[in-house]
Amino acid sequence: MNSKLKRAQLEDLGTSRSLYRRDFIYGMGASLGSVALAGMMSQNASASEAAPGPLSLKTPHLPPRAKNCIFLMMEGGPSQIDTFDPKPQLNKLHRKRFTRTGENQSAMELGTRYYVQSPWTARQVGQSGAWMTEPWQHLPDVTDDICFYRGCQAESVDHPTALFHINTGNRFGGDPALGSWVTYGLGSQNQNLPGFIVLPNLSYPQGGTPNWGNGFLPAHYQGTPLRPLGSPILDLKPPVGITAEHQRENLNLLGRSNGDHLKQHPWHDDLQARMENYELAFRMQMQVPDLLDIDQEDQNTRELYGIGNDDTDEFGRKLLLARRLVEKGVRFVQAYTGGWDSHDYIKRAHGARIRGVDKPITGLIKDLKQRGLLEDTLIVWCGEFGRSPDNGFRQGGETYGRDHNAKAMTMWFAGGGVAAGTTVGATDEIGEQAVDVVHPIRDVHVTLLHLLGLDDNRLTYFSGGRFKQLSQFGGKAIPELMS
After folding, report:
1. 74 lies in the same domain as 115
2. CATH code assigned at 144
3. Judgement on whether residues 298 and 150 belong to the same structural domain of the protein
4. What is the pLDDT of residues 288-341, one digit of tens each?
C-alpha cells in the first residue's frame, strides 16, 4: 500500500514538474511557436503599449495614401467589353462562327463558338476621355476621379475559386480576406465597431462566408456581415428587461472568471479573443443602431444615392451606409451586388445591373468628395473575372451573352492615392486577353496594401510552419495605378 502511494506521489510530482516545465518554456519563448508569436508581437509592441487590444491603431509600414477602403464587388463577372473596354472589331466579327480547341481552354470555351458584338455603343467621357458604354448615365460625372485598369488577369473561370482568389489571394479558400489583412496590419480607428464590415446580398456569394473570413488570423479580424433584411446583426438589442448596467455587471463577472483561467493557460488565445468580442459586442449595441439609421440623412443625400428608386434603392442604401461606416472609422467595407453572370440576354441582364449601380456609385464618389473624405478613402470596383468576346449559343442572335474569361478583366479605382483620370493597360482588339501592363491579381492586392500604407512582405503571420502573406509568395505594386 505504501509503495503504491509513493509511486502515485512520484507520478503526481512528475506531472507537476512537467507542467511547471511547460509553463517555464512557454514563458521563456523556447518553442518554435512561441518564438514566432514573440516575433509577431514585437512588431506591434509600440502600438500595443499606447492602445492595447487587437484592433488598436498600428503604425503603417509606409506613408499611407488612404486610410480606409470601400470595395465594390460585382459578383458574377461583369463584361469589360460592355462596360469600360469597348471593342469595335467585334462589330465586324458579329455572329462569325469558329471552332475553338486547345489544352489551355476550359470546357466552357471549347467547341463551336460565335463572336458577338456589344449591344451598346460607347463614347469617351470626361476630360480624360475614358470609354464607357451608353448605359452608364451618371458615372461620366466623376470619370476624372477614376483610374481604369484593363491589364489584370485572374487564374480561374470558376465562380467560387475566382471569388476566393480576388477576396483572399487563395483560390481554394480558407485564407484571410483582404479586409482581414488590412485590419490586422493597421487596426481600427473606432474601437466600438468592427474594423472590417461586409454588406452582402440576401443570398451570400458563391463560396459563402470564407470570402470574408479571418482564415488563420485571430478571430478579431474576420469580416462582420450586416444582414440586408431584419436586424442587421442578430441579438443586437438586449432582451426586454435587461439594462446596459445589467450587461456591464455580467461582463465584468465573466471577464474576471475568464481572466483567472487565462492566467493559468496563457496559450489559449481563443479565450482572449472571445472575451474581447464580448466587450466589442456590448459597445456595438450602443453605437450600431444609430449608425445604421440612414433616415437621419437629408433628402438630397438620399436622392444622390438613388434611394427611393426601385432600380437603385438596394445598392444605394448599401453605399450610403458604407460612407457612414468609413466616416465613423471602420477601416474596410465591402459591398456586394450580384447578377453579373450574363451567359445570355446580356443587354437585358447587364443593362439592369448597370442601372442598379450607376447612380449609387456616382453618388458615393460625389458624397465622399464634397465631405473631404475621398482623398482618404480608396474605392475599388471589380468582379471575380472578365467575360469572353464570344459565346457558344448556336443562334448567336439577340439572346447572346458572354462566357467567363480569366485572361482579361477591367477594374477601376478612385480616391486615396490612385492615378485619377487615367486608363492603364489594354486588351487585344477583341478584348480576349490583356496585352499591356499585364499583372496578376496578387499584384493588385500588393498595390492596394501599398496605398493603405502596408508592405506585403512585412505584413506576415506565422501559421502552418511558415510566415504567410496576402500575396502567397510575393507580388509587386503596380506603379501606373498610383499617383
Report:
1. yes
2. 3.40.720
3. yes
4. 667 788 889 999 999 999 999 999 999 999 999 999 999 999 999 999 999 999
Are residues 285 and 406 located together in one domain of the fold? no
Structural domain contains residue 453: yes
Other CB atoms within 10 Å distance of the CB of residue 366? 17
What's the structural domain count of the chain?
A: 3
List the alpha helices (DSSP H) in 51-203: 89-93, 159-168, 178-186
Q: Are residues 131 and 204 in the same domain?
A: yes
Q: Which residue has the higher pLDDT, 224 or 2?
A: 224
Residue 33 grid coordinates: 511557436
Q: Is residue 299 part of a domain?
A: yes
Place of cell 499611407: 64
Residues 118 and 210 in one domain: yes
Residue 452, amino acid: L
Q: Which residues contact 41 (CB under 8 A, 6 or more apart)?
A: 48
Q: CA 431, 87, 129: angle at the middle one, nearest 5?
A: 110
Structural Rg of the chain based on CA atoms: 26
The model carries a pTM of 0.82
Is 478 buried (19+), middle (13-18) or exposed (0-12) by CB count in 10 A?
Answer: buried
Q: Do 245 and 203 fall into the same domain?
A: no
Question: By residue range, what is the domain housing residue 39?
Answer: 2-43
Q: Let me know whether 97 and 182 are in one domain.
A: yes
**Torsion angle of C-alpha atoms 99, 101, 105, 106, degrees rounded to 10:** 70
**Alpha carbon distance 389, 79 (integer Å):** 9
Dihedral (CA of 469, 475, 477, 478) sign: negative
Q: Taking CA 430 as the corner, what is the angle to CA 425 and CA 433, rounded to the nearest 5 degrees? A: 50
Digit-coded pLDDT (tens) for 186-195: 999 988 888 9
Q: 3-53 pLDDT, tens per residue?
A: 544 444 444 444 444 444 444 333 333 333 333 333 333 333 333 344 457
In a domain, 14, yes or no: yes
48 assigned to some structural domain: no
Q: 425, exposed or middle or buried, with CB in 10 Å at 0-12, 13-18, 19+?
A: buried
Chain centroid to Cα 392, Å, comes to 32
For 375-395, b/e burial (b = at least 16 CB within 10 A) is ebbbbbbbbbbbbbbbbbbee
